[in-house]
Every structure is written in structure tokens, then in C-alpha cells.
Amino acid sequence: APSAGTGAQAVELARAGFLVTAADISDRMLARCEWRAAEAGVTLAGLVHRPAIETSETARFDAVISCFF
């Protein structure tokens, strides 16, 4: 399952100038991710709760990153 988690990687990528869409099945984690981005002063391109449904086959991303540690 996709997991943006608390948004640590999403925020750092947005700080680096990337257009970031964060995906997580948990509303709580997406809220935390959004809060972390706001605290850092960066904007995320989007927050996606159900990526398989909310992105179409025509949606294109240059990279998909999943970090588990």
C-alpha cells in the first residue's frame, strides 16, 4: 500500500524543487504530511488517499518513491 507517512521525504523533495504528490491510505498520515509541509513552508502538488482510484491511467509521474526504514 502506498505510504507517504508523515511526509519527511515528500517535504525534502518539495524543498529541492520537485513537484510532489503524496499518497497514503491513512487520512491521519496525509493530515500529518500536509501539516509538515506547511510547517516547512513548502507546497505539495497533491495529497492522494486512494491512488489506484484517484489517479487515472493517463496520470504520469517521472518517479515513484517508496521508503521503508
Write up this protein.
The chain has 69 residues and is mostly helical. Helix content is 38%, strand content 9%. The protein has three helices and two strands. The protein has helices at 8-15, 27-40, 51-54; strands spanning 21-23, 46-48. It has a two-stranded parallel sheet. Helix 2 links the parallel strand 1 (21-23) and strand 2 (46-48). Helix 1 runs parallel beside helix 2 (27-40). The longest helix has 14 residues, at 27-40. The radius of gyration is 11 Å and the shape is globular. The model has no long low-confidence stretch (mean pLDDT 82).
Can you give the mean pLDDT? Answer: 82
**Proportion of helical residues:** 25-40%
Number of strands: 2
Q: State the shape.
A: globular
**Poorly predicted residue ranges:** none
Oligomer: single chain
Summarize the structure.
The protein is mainly alpha-helical. It is 38% helix and 9% strand.
Distinctive features:
3 helices; two-stranded parallel sheet; 38% helix; globular; mainly alpha
Sequence-ordered SSE layout with sheet pairings:
Elements: H1 8-15, E1 21-23, H2 27-40, E2 46-48, H3 51-54
Parallel strand pairs: 1-2
Helix pairs in contact: 1-2
